[in-house]
Amino acid sequence: MSKYLRKAKPPRVGDAPAVRRSLIAFVLLVGAVLILAPLVVIFVQAFSQGFSTFARTIAQPDTRHAIFMTVATALIAVPINTAFGIAAAWAITKFDFPGKRLLTVVIEIPFSISPIVAGVAYLFVYGLQGVFGPALQAADIKILFALPGIVLASMFVTAPFVARELIPLMQAQGRDLEEAATSLGASGWRTFFSVTLPNIRWAMLYGVVLCNARVMGEFGAVSVVSGNIRGQTNTLPLHVELLYHDYQTVGAFAAASILTALALVTIVAKVILEHQGAGRAGRPMLAGPAVEAKETHQ
Amino acid sequence: MRRRVLPGLTLSLGITLLYVGLIVALPLGALIFKAASLGPEDYWRIISSGRALASYRVTVLSAAAATVFNLVFGLALAWVLVRYSFPGKRLVDAIVDLPFALPTAVAGIALTTLFAPNGWFGSWLSEAGIRVAYTPLGIMIAMAFTSLPFIVRTVQPVLEDLDPALEEAAQSLGGSDVAIFRKVILPLLVPALLAGVSLAFARSLGEFGAIIFIAGNQPFETEITALLAFIRLEEYDYQAAAAIASVLLITAFAMLAVTNFLQARALRYTARS
């Protein structure tokens, strides 16, 4: 049926078979070189000496520790970040207060900043030459070159992830449902869990998935604050770098293949969540202002 | 003024301000404070040193080249994804996000392995006399990889929403495909393209992980600004690290302002049409 329909319509711009075929060929060719080949080379290198070598490198204590550090960082940073994202979205979309626009812009700042700048900035807060450094050392509290520093730097680079998914959605949904619930006598928490949360759960999960991917994969900021101590403060991306510079190519790519598998899982989760209506079409995953000037309630 | 009926302002705003203050504002403030404590002469000497200037040049030129590449490829990719159907299209659409999902260090070692003189592409290119790894071309490729999705994802929705009536009108007036694309379609895409370009360029200026593996990192030749800040830290030259990081920070703020302006304009533009 669609064949007849298509025949009835005049061909659209660029529908000439030659144009169509050459454009598709160009895109697939460049895409294969730039996107697909890196993906393939990771697994080819990781398994270049057979599966047993791959398994042995993954099982090395240093690699296992790096995996542990990465998972531990994500387990701390992602839930805190999610709680922050919900709080920020609630404050910004359910209330009017002066400085609201400024606050939304400030939340977005970490997206625009080089991860190296983030790492350097953290050094000047908690490092010995920083604001709190000497006091922390006197109290024998270790933040830099330890897990807390890695968690803090990860939280910086991913601060906007959950908030930016929730703010536009909750703004579009307005306040009526929540106001009805509270006027019927529901408590604030009850209103949130029974009214708001069911409406935002997919968008929240979407933010959580992207946040988690970035936390587990963060390199620049973490490499400044971690001190790169082997078997102690190396996360998985840092461990990849260390093995690579040690000319342990198979080991580096084996560790990298774990992170690549995570990236692929993230993409699949993203596609599934988009089918649930999460993520707004047309917004790059990690970019741009989340909030426009439109207000649902004036 | 509406009466507030919903609870939780104090709690939610309190958490938000505490988090933003401690996680975002405090470190950036500390960095600015450190850079400002240098004094204008020292600050200027550090940020205008020959090595620093060379790093700005490498970074900006590579980022510009990568952005131009992505402008062409990203537009073509968005066009193909929106206007044509072919087997595997949904897979291509999903995999466009790979550069965002893949950790930058992993992208870095993968691209280096591909483009190194003994790599899949590198060996083939070096026969043709083109060196990619350990040259600015390598930096450009790493930047092009990490910033690819920005332009595709800003242009895609605008192309999807394009009113076919506009094209049909132009066609009925006898316009050729090329003329209609240039005079009718492209102007409608310009705001989205500009927004995508500014995002991609800003991302390329700050990129670190994907680049340092493929760049070769020779001072004055293939050393990007982010790496120079990192090297100054490793040399315990904290003041220089702060000064150079502050240059990146100021650039990022400037790009943020440009991006916000362009994106707001793009949105207004789409809302009107």
TrEMBL record, chain A:
GO MF terms, alphabetically ordered: ABC-type sulfate transporter activity
Transmembrane regions: 21-47, 67-90, 102-123, 143-163, 203-229, 249-273
Keyword annotations from UniProtKB, A to Z: Membrane, Sulfate transport, Transmembrane, Transmembrane helix, Transport
Keyword Transmembrane: yes
GO cellular-component term (any): plasma membrane
Subcellular location(s) per record: Cell membrane
Domain ABC transmembrane type-1: 67-273
Family matches, as PANTHER family: SULFATE TRANSPORT SYSTEM PERMEASE PROTEIN, SULFATE TRANSPORT SYSTEM PERMEASE PROTEIN CYSW
Function description: Part of the ABC transporter complex CysAWTP (TC 3.A.1.6.1) involved in sulfate/thiosulfate import. Probably responsible for the translocation of the substrate across the membrane.
Record's protein name: Sulfate ABC transporter permease subunit CysW
Organism: Pseudaminobacter soli (ex Zhang et al. 2022)
Gene label: cysW
From TrEMBL, chain B:
Topological type in the membrane: Multi-pass membrane protein
GO cellular component annotations of the record: plasma membrane
Keyword Membrane: yes
Domain ABC transmembrane type-1: 56-259
Keywords noted in UniProt: Membrane, Sulfate transport, Transmembrane, Transmembrane helix, Transport
A family per Pfam: BPD_transp_1
Transmembrane segments: 12-36, 56-82, 94-116, 128-152, 184-202, 240-262
Subcellular location: Cell membrane
Tagged with keyword Transmembrane helix: yes
The organism's place on the tree of life at top rank: Bacteria
InterPro entries per record: CysT_permease (IPR011865), MetI-like (IPR000515), MetI-like_sf (IPR035906), Sulph_transpt2 (IPR005667)
Example of a GO MF term: ABC-type sulfate transporter activity
Main location: membrane
Entry similarity comment: Belongs to the binding-protein-dependent transport system permease family. CysTW subfamily.
Alphabetical list of PANTHER family matching this protein: SULFATE TRANSPORT SYSTEM PERMEASE PROTEIN, SULFATE TRANSPORT SYSTEM PERMEASE PROTEIN CYST
Quaternary structure and interacting proteins, as annotated: The complex is composed of two ATP-binding proteins (CysA), two transmembrane proteins (CysT and CysW) and a solute-binding protein (CysP).
Function summary: Part of the ABC transporter complex CysAWTP (TC 3.A.1.6.1) involved in sulfate/thiosulfate import. Probably responsible for the translocation of the substrate across the membrane. Part of the ABC transporter complex (TC 3.A.1.6.1) involved in sulfate/thiosulfate import.
Protein name: Sulfate transport system permease protein CysT
Protein source organism: Pseudaminobacter soli (ex Zhang et al. 2022)
Lineage per the UniProt record: Bacteria, Pseudomonadati, Pseudomonadota, Alphaproteobacteria, Hyphomicrobiales
Gene: cysT
